[in-house]
Specification:
Largest sheet: 8 strands, mixed
Distance between the termini: 29 Å
Bound molecules: zinc ion
Order of helices and strands: EHEEEHEHEEE
Number of helices: 3
Strand content: 35-45%
Shape: globular
Number of strands: 8
Amino acid sequence: MKQVEHIGIAVRNFSEANKLYSKLLGAGPYKTESVESEGVNTSFFRVGGSKIELLEATSEDSAIARFIEKKGEGIHHIAFEVDDIVAEMERLKQEGFVLLSDAPKKGADNKLVCFVHPKSANGVLVELTQEIKEVEE
Ligand code: ZN
């Protein structure tokens, strides 16, 4: 794995959290994006070579809504950047980690993503991210 690509934080109130994190980090989000398949609004802040992702649930049955209900607001996941997500998923499976999907999914911020079950990683939800390279035609 190459680096911590971002840290995901579950928030109740997206617009207030965006204002707060803009103040905290000294700059606003460079991108906000809805991921309908996951039932979330996301925003991304740059912090040096890494990022902070804020996540707000847009429906009651989204994973973020369930997380906040159980644990309250706070750090939701840590995302690691990888070059080849399929190979990395295979490596982790061989090592006995439980993955939340069999194939990478399209996530926010132009990424292919896959999550590792927190039970396999000391209570931390781990995200693998691989940038989607633009296909040249
Ligand atoms: Zn993420």
